[in-house]
Amino acid sequence: MTLEIPAYRKDDVEKRLCDIDFHSLVENRKFYPSPGSWADEVLYFLFLDRFSDGKEYGGFSDSKGAPVEALEDARTTPLFDLLTDSRSAEREAWFEAGRTWCGGTIAGMKQKLGYLSRLGITAIWVSPVFRQVTGSSDYHGYGIQNFLDVDPHFGTREELRDFVQAAHEAGIRVILDIIINHAGDVFAYEGNQRYFYDEGRQWPVSGYRLSSGEQGSLEFRAAPSCFESGAWPEGGIWPEELQSPETWSRHGEIRAWDTFPEFLDGDFCSLKDINLGNAMRDPEAFQDIERRIREFVPSDALRHLTDVYRFWIAYADIDGYRLDTVKHMEPGAVRFFDTAIHEFAESIGKENFTIIGEITGGRAYAETILNATGLDAALGIDDIPDKLEFLVKGWRSPGNPDTADQEGYFDLFRNSILDNRRSHQWYSKQIVTMLDDHDQVGVRHKFRFCGDDSRSTRLLRPALGLNLTSAGIPCIYYGTEQAFDGADKRSGDDDSWSDVFLRECMFGGPFGSYQSTGKHFFNEQHEVYRFIQEVSLLRKEHIALRRGRQYLRQVSESGQDRDFYYPQPVNGELHWIVAWSRIFDRSEYLCAINTDTERGISIWVVVDSGLHPSGSLMECLYSTDPLQAGDKSQVSAAMGSAVRISVPPAGFVVYR
Questions:
Q1: In sequence order, what DSSP letters do the residues of 476-538 get, joined into one string?
Q2: Residue 589 within a domain
Q3: What is the pTM of this model?
Q4: CATH assignment at residue 552
Q5: Least confident of 289-303, 369-383, 630-644
C-alpha cells in the first residue's frame, strides 16, 4: 500500500522558537479547564496511524448520533464480520504491512469522537503527532525530526487544534504523548555506522541526515551556516535551536538497559539521545535521587524542549502530557520540565494539567521517581498490568491482607502505610491502570489480552470491570473494546517486530485485526463496547467506584465464620470469585468477578458491618447477566456482616 503524503508546508511553521509569540497565543483566550480530579476520568490510548483514516461506514454513528452510511469515494470501508473476514489475509503480507505507515489521520480520529464519547471516554491519549524523520517507517511517532510541526502523514497543526476543540465540545480532554529524552535518527555517526555505548565514550559524527538512512551530509554544527544547503524542512532537526552539537549525548546505542549510567546516556536504539543537562555520575550515589536532583544543571536543549511543549499547550489547548521513557532521563531533568510546564499551564487557567510518566523499572522505582520529580501519575509499572491481567485469567493471587507480602493485584493498592503513602487517594489519582498496551515491556513474543488463548476473550469483560471499578485511573487501549486478539504466534528466538502484533488498524486498511484487511472495527453493538459503555456510566454516576477506599474481601461457600478466606490459587490456578469493596463516605459498593468461564457461583462475601448491619439489604446494581440486576440479598451476621451474591460465568457484578 502506498500512502499519498501531502507536500510539506514551509511558510506557516516556525523554524525557531524565538519566532513564537507566546503572548499573542494566550492573550484574551479562555482555555479548556482541567478536571477536578483525574481519578474521575476514563482514558483511551490510541495509535494515530492505526486508528482511523475517515473512510469507514456502518456500525457506528457520528457525534450527533446519526448513523454513518456509505458515501461514494469518501467512505469505502465496511464493517468487519467475524465469520467471513477473520484470518482472510495472507499472513506474511499482512504482517509486513504492519511494520510501516498504515494511514490513520487526525481527521479520521476527529470523526470518531461520537464513538468514543458514547463508549464513556473522557480523555484521549494520542500517540506522538510530531513530524518524523523524512522517509522513515516511524509510524509510532517516537522518532521526531521537527518538534514544532505535525507529521504530514497525520495531517496539519491546524487539524490537530481543530480536533482538540471538537473533543472539548464533546466533553473529552486530550493528552499528547511527548518525548524529551530523544529525537529521531537525525544524524549519522562516522561512516554512517552503528555505534554502541562504551563506558561513556563520545563517538564522532558524520553530520545531520537529509532523510532516513542518509549518510549525514549536512554539517554537524549550529545553524544557520550548516543549513544554507536547503535542509529545511526535510533534513536535520528542528527547531533551529536544537541544531547545536551540544544537544546530543553521542554515546551510541544502549545495550545494557539496566546499567547506570548507560541507560541514561545511550541512544534509544537508533533514536538519538538528547543531552538534558549535567548530572552526577557516581554509581555509589545512584539511589540518592534527592542529591541527583539537587546537583542537576539543565542544558539549553532541555530549556528549548520545555518551550516546545509550552507552545503546544498554548497553540492547541492540550490538557495533559504522557511523558515517554522517564526511566532514561535524569530525575533532575524530569523535575525541571514538570515544574516549568505546570507553572505555564496554571498561568493560563489549567490548574490541574496532568503529566503522566511512563516509568518502567519496577514499582518501587516508579513511586520514588513520581514523588521526587512532580509527575502527576505513572504508567508502565510492570507488575500492575501483569497482576491485573493474570489475576483475571486465574493464574495470580488477588492478594492477601493477612500477610505483609505484596504479591497480588490488590496488595499493590492496599494499606498505603506500607508504601509510606498518607492516603489511599495517592493510588486513585497517581496510578494509571490498563490491560493491553502498545509495548508490553518484558515480554518477548507479545500478545493482547485476548491473544494468548480463546478462553481469554470470555474473560475480557470481568478484566475490564476490574480495571474500571478498582483503584487507579483506568485507561482503555484502542481495539480492546472490540476484543482485538493480536499475538505473536512465532516460536523460538525470532521476536523481531513483535510489538507490531499489538498495533492492528481499527480502520482495517492493510493491517486489520484478526488478520484481516479492508474492514473496520467501529462496532457500537459489540458486547465489549457495550460493557465498557455501561460500566463507565456506572462509574460516572457513583463516586465510590472511582474515589472510594478499596478492600479485598473474604469469601465463603458456607457463610460460617470459620470458613471465610481470601481466595488463593490452588495448583497455580484460581477459577473462583474475587470480590472487593469501594467505600466512600457512608456508601459501600461491593464488586466481584468470576474467573471461572464455565459456571456461575453463589458465595458469601464480607461487607462493612457498620454500613450494613445484619438484616439489611444489598441490591444488585449491575451484572453481566441483565436478569440479575435489581435482585436483593439480605445481610447476615457472619464475620460481622456478610452478604450472599451470585456472579455469572466469566461475569462481573456490583452490589450496593
A1: EETTGGGT---B----TT--TTGGGGG--BTT-TTSBTTTB-S-B---TT-HHHHHHHHHHHH
A2: yes
A3: 0.95
A4: 2.60.40.1180
A5: 369-383
